[in-house]
Design goal:
The complex is a heterodimer of chains A (356) and B (35). Chain A has one domain (72-352). Chain A has 356 residues and is mainly α. Chain A has 18 helices and no strands. Chain A is globular and about 65 Å long. By secondary structure, chain B is an all-alpha fold. In chain B, 71% of the residues lie in helices and 0% in strands. Chain B has 1 helix and no strands. Classes of the chains: A mainly alpha (356), B mainly alpha (35). The interface between A and B is medium-sized, with 26 and 22 residues.
Chain lengths: 356, 35
């Protein structure tokens, strides 16, 4: 109970800032006449920028900290709720192609990052953590892998810092590049889901581009998250065979433990709503049902809004400046390589991807 | 190990909370969401 109470101040702060950000965005949308300036004043950008400004300029008391880190909870609730919007047949079609692309992306990332880590003589386990972070899903994959391959504590901290630095860069760079290249919502959304490491930042990057892009980003990102267990298991076996980490006793159980359960929730909701939609045939039932789906969509957007405030608050420029140079160089090379590689893949398969 | 256990529980909690919200919305308990 005491633990739950310790989360309250930070959660309240996030909720208040999210509502204030939304009100400010609504007002700006109404008063700004120039279209491109108006598009910069979206509630997503205001939430992230506002969070960054407050987090970096105002010294927040320590009791806010636990609640601020809880945004990952809202992120996952928001993703599960998004499941209601997708027909399971669409999820299967996009997910099938998505998983195939993601397998290639993960193999490329691991090979590419390991190569650079070796060139710059980073400790081997730090290289592995970075490749897991870049290949799959950022911070949660690094923490998951750290439990299995037993790196030094500061190596884990380093790898997480690098992923967070590039998450912040991605928020600005990807939407700009996407607009410059005139990418479609579909292509950009899938690209952001494949190339941005951390789930929160990936979702935010998609949302900054457009609401339509956000749907593709989420699905592509979930494909990566779903494969997390397999990659971590691979690394765990690799290190335990060489006597550098403890052995994995029960591989099936290991995979289940590492499988992100919110992905199951997302799929279950998508199945439920697809079945309901197929069963309900009368116009009244359809209308009621559509209004419920819209309500869920709004709630999921609010959950994301809380996430974006949290992402902004957590992005500390001071911590970024403290990250060492050589992991950063490896990070730059890795991120740029993965960004280009995934961009090529997205353009190659864009025609095959179903429209949501 | 303990951290991992917490993580699993938290992940499941997100699913439980989301489904509770869905139940509320479907039954009309959260009938009008103003935003």
């Amino acid at each position: 109970m005491k633990k739950i109470l310790s989360y309250l101040p930070g959660i309240l702060l996030i909720v208040v800032l999210a509502i204030a950000g939304k009100l400010l965005a609504n007002w700006l949308q109404a008063v700004i006449a120039v279209a491109w300036v108006r598009s910069l004043a979206s509630n997503v950008i205001i939430a992230i920028l506002g969070g960054m400004l407050i987090g970096n300029l105002i010294p927040l008391p320590g009791f806010f900290a636990p609640g601020i880190t809880s945004y990952e909870f809202f992120l996952k609730v928001g993703i599960v709720l998004m499941g209601a919007r997708f027909l399971i047949t669409d999820v299967a079609r996009l997910g099938g192609i998505g998983l195939a692309i993601v397998v290639v992306e993960i193999l490329f990332s691991i090979a590419f990052v390991s190569l650079f880590a070796r060139l710059f003589k980073l400790p081997e386990k730090l290289g592995s953590l970075l490749s897991v972070g870049v290949g799959i899903c950022g911070v949660s994959a690094i923490i998951g892998a750290a439990g299995s391959i037993e790196p030094k504590k500061e190596e884990t901290g380093y790898a997480i810092a690098v992923i967070l630095v590039f998450g912040a860069v991605a928020l600005v760079a990807y939407p700009l590049l996407g607009r410059l290249m005139g990418m479609s919502d579909k292509a950009f959304g899938v690209w952001a889901g494949l190339a941005v490491d951390n789930t929160a930042e990936a979702v935010a990057t998609g949302a900054i581009y457009s609401k339509a892009a956000l749907a593709y980003t989420t699905l592509a990102k979930l494909c990566r998250n779903a494969l997390m267990g397999f990659v971590i298991l691979g690394f765990a076996i690799y290190y335990s065979r060489r006597g550098l980490a403890k052995e994995v006793e029960h591989k099936g159980l290991f995979l289940w433990q590492k499988f992100p359960k919110f992905v199951l929730g997302f799929l279950a909701l998508s199945v439920l709503f697809s079945v309901l939609f197929a069963l309900l045939k009368t116009p009244e039932a359809r209308a009621y049902f559509t209004s419920r789906t819209t309500a869920l969509k709004n709630l999921s957007e609010w959950a994301f809004q809380l996430t974006f405030i949290g992402v902004g608050l957590r992005t500390s420029f001071r911590d970024m400046a403290r990250t060492g140079l050589s992991p950063l160089i490896v990070g730059v090379a890795a991120e740029a390589g993965v960004a280009l590689f995934t961009l090529g893949m997205v353009f190659a398969v864009e025609g095959l991807l179903p429209t949501l | 190990m303990r951290a991992m256990k917490n993580k699993i529980t938290l992940d499941w909690w997100t699913v439980i909370v989301a489904f509770a919200i869905v139940a509320l919305v479907l039954t009309g308990a959260l009938s009008s969401i103003p935003w």
